[in-house]
Specification:
Structural class: alpha/beta
Number of strands: 9
Distance between the termini: 41 Å
Number of helices: 14
Order of helices and strands: HEHEHEHEHEHEHEHEHEHHHHH
Shape: globular
Helix content: 40-55%
């Protein structure tokens, strides 16, 4: 073999070797077992989880999406049957998350970048019939409660809560604050907002659970009820607050939306663990993506794919 050709082939071989060793660790997943991410029953969480799944796939990981109950999922995270939950809202899941982390079997993987708010909400047009709002004490007035009533609940007001799997302690809140309201749960996230749309178009009475980030707070003019401010003691100690005999005599907590995972994640899939910790998105971005799905009829997959295509530099840094 001519010396020049031999030298060329040697150089090519060396270059190939260097290229292989220079590949990021994420290109060689530590395990081919599927990383199981949980899916719940609201659009934003489906989007967040799909985004994370697509990023992990880009890094070569095997990903499985598993439908799970929002609060009951912690048993699966503790056992390692489930691996990642992309949205634990401080408003409804903080206690469950803290309890799971305290077992040592679940890890808080940090904030998603989104800030959660969930509370009782009403359209602005209802203030004419209950002028003391947004102060929660206005709801104690029988005339105000009846203004929010339906044929099924009259003379009590009707509060439309989220699906029962979301938690939220609304029945307990009604009892502790002595509110003349009945709690009725929507079967799904879609049903909750379909009822809001119907009532708003008719200027009909409605009081319901609204959360942010979400498109509803931008589309509809309304306000959240201002309850006594949440503290951990309100939920844990009946002696706290205005009702010395019952807990939950306050509003819902506001705060971060957390990521959580099985404690063994960092050892079995350290690259994925790092990527999930790095994941961050804000309320405005999420609100826009939810709008694309819920109002503009796009699929969660299409919206996630569009975000991945538009933000390569951003998510690529998560898997380096």
């Amino acid at each position: 073999m001519p010396k020049t050709l031999r030298n060329l082939l040697s150089a090519l071989a060396l270059g190939a070797s260097l290229a292989i060793t220079a590949l990021p660790a994420a290109a060689a997943p530590e395990s081919t077992d599927p990383i199981k991410l949980t899916l719940h029953d609201w659009t934003g969480q489906l989007i967040t989880t799909q985004l994370m799944a697509e990023v992990l796939k880009k890094a070569g990981y095997n990903v499985e999406l598993v439908t799970a109950d929002y609060l009951a999922q912690f048993a699966g995270l503790e056992s390692g049957d489930l691996h990642v939950a992309m949205e634990i809202w401080a408003t409804t899941g903080q206690e469950a998350l803290d309890a799971a982390v305290a077992t040592g079997k679940v890890e808080n993987l940090g904030e998603t970048g989104m800030q959660a708010k969930e509370e009782w909400w009403y359209p602005t047009y209802m203030k004419e019939k209950c002028p003391g709002l947004p102060n929660w004490e206005a709801l104690l007035d029988p005339a105000c409660a009846e203004a929010f009533s339906t044929a099924e609940t009259a003379p009590n007001g009707r509060y439309l809560g989220g699906p029962v799997t979301w938690g939220g302690f609304d029945e307990e809140r009604v009892s502790a604050l002595g509110l003349p309201f009945e709690v009725v749960h929507a079967g799904t996230d879609a049903a909750l907002f379909a009822e809001l749309e119907s009532a708003y178009q008719r200027q009909a009475p409605i009081m319901l659970w609204i959360y942010a980030p979400h498109w509803a707070v931008a589309k509809y003019e309304g306000e959240w009820v201002e309850f006594p401010q949440y503290t951990p003691e309100c939920y844990a100690d009946p002696a706290w607050g205005g009702n010395a005999n019952e807990a939950y005599d306050c509003g819902k907590p506001f705060g971060a939306i957390w990521k959580a995972g099985w404690a063994g994640l960092k050892d079995k899939w350290p690259g994925a663990h790092k990527a999930i910790q790095a994941f961050s998105i804000d309320n405005a971005e999420m609100g826009q993506m939810i709008t694309e799905v819920d109002l503009n009829g796009k699929s969660v997959q299409d919206v996630a794919d569009a975000w991945i295509a538009a933000n390569e530099a951003r998510w690529s840094a998560w898997i380096q």
